[in-house]
Each structure stands twice: as C-alpha cells, then as structure tokens.
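Protein of interest.
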Amino acid sequence: MSDQPIGHDTSTGHGHDHDHGALGSASPDAPVRVLFVCWGNSARSIIAEALLRHLGGGRIDVFSAGIEPKGVNPLTIRVLEEAGLPTSGLRSKSVNDYLGQRFDYVITVCDDTRDVCPVFPGVHESLHWGYPDPAKVEGSEEVRLAAFRSVFTQMGQRIHQFLPIAERFAAERRPVELA
C-alpha cells in the first residue's frame, strides 16, 4: 500500500488527451490555460481549479498544483459538493509535474508560494491572490467548515472577476478576419 495521502497524484499526466501545454505558441483556438499554485494543493488551489473549470466551461483548461502536495482535504471536497461542483478527478499534484508546460496564467493563492513558485516560460501573466489557509483553522468541524466556505466564497468572487479578463485574452490572440 502506498504511503501517499489519499487524493495525491504522483503521475505526470494531467488527464487530457490534447497537448496544448507543450511549450511553444498556443494555437489561436486553444483554450486559455491556467495553473493555480499553493503550498499543499489540498484546499485553496483545488477550490480555485474546480470553480474556474465549472465557470469557464470548455473555454479554459485549468489545473492546480502544490509545492509540497499533501492530498485533498476532505472539507475541500465537502464544500465543493455542497456547491454542486464535480469533484471526481481532483487530485493533489506537484508543481514539478507541470514544469515545461505552457500556461497563459499562473496564479499563486497563498503567500508562502509567491516567492518560491517556479518560473513557467511563455506565461502571459503571473498573478497572486492571497487567501488564508482554511486547513490551518482549528476548532470544531463547523468552525473549520466555515473557514473553507469563506475561502470558497471569496475565490468565487475573484474568479467571476477574472473570467472576463481570460476570455478577452483568448479573443485578442485570435486573428481578425478581414472581409
């Protein structure tokens, strides 16, 4: 039996059949690629991945990773399921799994990763959205769950603001057809 935490993916694949992540220029019709990074890839980055995947539909390829992946926190799954978001396929992954891939946006979601996140060549923009780690909150399950719900709500608001920016970026890289 593996000593890896449940939900910890040690594979290097990201579960997609297409290879939009190879370094080089993206095709004009390729989805916008976003990578969310936090320390453990157990809560904040997983929440952001699920939210953006849901809200962005097929227009955005979204991934998450951690500097030191810890496995997905069960309260992360609970909050996502409460919101009606799919959770199958969500796994805690290492940022090293994505080195050498192209991303349009790399977004750190915790202060600890801001300065240690690897550089991804070809990134259109690196962003930092700092959120407190709900996994570090102590207390009853209800207190801890409230912390996860709060981060979920804050991230949802931020992603609603980010989505039009990502869509505008995708539209601007498409060639204009002249009549």
Notes: The CA atoms of residues 15 and 153 lie 27 Å apart. The beta strands are 32-38, 60-66, 105-108, 125-128.
